[in-house]
Write a structure and sequence with these properties.
mainly alpha, 2 domains, two-stranded antiparallel ribbon, globular
Length: 568
């Protein structure tokens, strides 16, 4: 147990060096997150250097006390993110945000699995490696958004929704992986534990519905009448930390409890007062969180895992900055907004370290000695890169635009405008998605799960059924999208509206081909790691060929009456 002297010394060192790191980062026009993390590495217990006969082994060695304080910072950060993101916004963004979050997590998990298979790691080790690779950082994303004052941007609402979904996904995936570790002393989750977790999650949701509908509206009146800033802060912090404790008790990450409470208060008139009174405490504890994150990284172990890290980092950039951004654009976001979202998802932090900690401390893994060092180096690099990528997202967008052929940009714009009409929220909804599409997607994903979980003949049969469902879904989308096309303007890109048959066929074809590629990846990964990679590489090439065959030269303006009244 630390003495009073040691506690005061540690707090003083961390605060002073955090100030120095943040000041230097700001001086070079970089995110303060970078300064905090680097300072944490330099003063942490894993720093051991011999310089000219002088030995240096860090300034802070017992970090138990700091760990608790840093978690308060993470909870407060997510509470403030919730204040910027009300339940009204969540309802508005839930469809696109959930879809993007699930696809992004799935792609990242696939990248991690491919990396583990290519290294020849056992299954359980590969899954933990994939978890480290896949889980984004709510803290890095949230802190960078605050620094950049991006909360007024349209894409930020969807990005915050994605954070919520991805944190729940990380919890579920970790629970499933825990079930794989029930062997030789490994700590796992059985069926009863999973059922208990489900009950806890449902109780958690029910409690926050109760808060939103009944408790908070009555509490707000009382809080508004509190004249003393001291009493207001005490009452506010008490509610934040008790909500986080309830989430933990229900088997949900504490940060989700804080985030949901923030969303409840976002619907009230107390937002400005909460921000004014609590933001100084948030900034102090968030700084401690990032300093602690750096202190947990052992630079001495980087040499053993640097090769894996140099492969994993580009894979994440390809997945988040390119593939997820491309998907966001095709769903209807602007090009700049899509790239900003992709850049924001590149950060890795506490969630990845959580996977590494569990994987590195169980006897079910044989590569446990490499998992945490890999996570440390991997998270350090991406936590530094993510804020930089977000700050330069406009320049990245312009660079990508110049690299893409004109036919590809035309095809992407057509899909973006069409799907934006279908997926994105609008004050006046002129197009309603057909129930057939939703039913087909449910059936598709059910068959996809069967493909993933089976082997042998059932595996092949499920693949055949899912492929047939994909073809049927393509036909349904082609028919339903024609009405969306008739309500969408394409004149500014040289194409007029008509009955929409060709545009709908092109859009439905690109989507169906993507769904088929996902199926092929799930089917082929059981046989060799390079087979699904080949399918992924083939997809954009085929889309490029489709885009070249689509454009004004193939679909003349005369074929699409400007008044939009083509054939029914």
């Amino acid at each position: 147990m630390l003495s009073n002297l040691e506690v005061m010394m540690e707090m003083g060192i961390i605060m002073l060096f955090a100030f120095i790191g943040a000041a230097l980062a700001s001086r070079f026009k970089q995110s303060v997150i970078i300064g905090y993390i680097i300072v944490g590495v330099l003063i942490g217990p894993y720093m051991n250097l011999d310089i000219l006969g002088v030995h240096y082994d860090g300034l802070v060695h017992d970090i138990t006390f700091i760990e608790y304080l840093s978690q308060l910072g993470l909870v407060l950060l997510l509470f403030f993110l919730g204040l910027e993101f009300s339940f009204t916004k969540l309802r508005k963004t839930k469809g696109p945000a959930a879809l993007l979050a699930l696809v992004n997590t799935g792609i990242d998990l696939f990248m991690g699995i491919i990396l583990g298979m290519a290294l020849g790691w056992p299954l359980v080790d590969t899954l933990f490696l994939a978890g480290v690779v896949a889980m984004g950082s709510a803290a890095i994303t949230g802190k960078t958004l605050m620094e950049m004052k991006k909360f007024s941007s349209p894409e930020t609402e969807f990005l915050l929704g994605m954070i919520v979904v991805e944190d729940f996904v990380s919890m579920i995936v970790l629970a499933i992986m825990g079930g794989l570790m029930v062997q030789s002393g490994g700590v796992g989750l059985g069926a009863e534990s999973l059922a208990g977790m489900l009950v806890g999650v449902l109780a958690f949701y029910g409690f926050f519905v109760f808060l939103a509908v009944w408790a908070i509206p009555r509490t707000v009146k009382y809080m508004s009448n509190i004249k003393s800033d001291e009493l207001f802060v005490l009452f506010g912090l008490g509610m934040v930390f008790l909500s986080s404790a309830l989430a933990e008790a229900a088997g949900v990450p504490a940060i989700i409890g804080a985030f949901f409470l923030g969303m409840v208060f976002a619907e009230t008139k107390l937002v400005a007062k909460l921000d004014d009174r609590l933001s100084p405490l948030r900034d102090v504890f968030v700084a401690m969180f990032f300093v602690l994150f750096g202190m947990l990284i052992d630079p001495a172990m980087f040499g053993e895992v640097i090769g894996i890290v140099l492969v994993a980092v580009p894979l994440v950039l390809l997945s988040d900055l390119i593939m997820t951004a491309a998907l966001a654009y095709m769903m209807g976001f602007t090009g700049r907004g899509a790239v900003t979202m992709g850049a924001a998802l590149c950060g890795r932090g506490a969630e990845s370290l959580m996977y590494a900690s569990v994987g590195g401390n169980t006897t079910a893994t044989t590569k446990s000695s490499m998992v945490f060092p890999f996570a440390g180096a991997f998270c350090l690099i991406l936590s530094i890169l993510a804020p930089v990528l977000m700050h330069f997202s406009d320049a990245i967008f312009r660079g990508l635009s110049r690299l893409l052929p004109g036919s590809v940009k035309l095809g992407g714009t057509i899909i973006s405008r069409t799907m934006g009409k279908v997926l994105m929220p609008a004050p006046l909804r002129l197009f309603q998605r057909g129930r057939r599409i939703e039913a087909c997607l449910v059936a598709y994903f059910a068959l996809l799960m069967v493909v993933i979980l089976t082997t042998g003949l059932p595996h092949v049969a499920a693949m055949a059924g899912a492929a047939a469902m994909t073809w049927y879904l393509y036909r349904v989308m082609w028919q339903d999208l024609r009405s969306a096309v008739r309500q969408t303007s394409y004149e500014s890109i040289g194409i007029a509206r008509g009955d929409g048959s060709q545009i709908a066929k092109f859009t439905a074809g690109v989507i169906a081909l993507g769904l088929l590629t996902i199926l092929l990846v799930a089917f082929l990964i059981q046989y060799a790691w390079w087979l699904p990679v080949s399918a992924l590489v083939a997809y954009p090439l085929v889309v490029v060929l489709m885009s070249r065959g689509f454009g004004p030269q193939r679909i003349p303006r005369s074929a699409f009456p400007v008044n939009g009244r083509g054939r029914p």
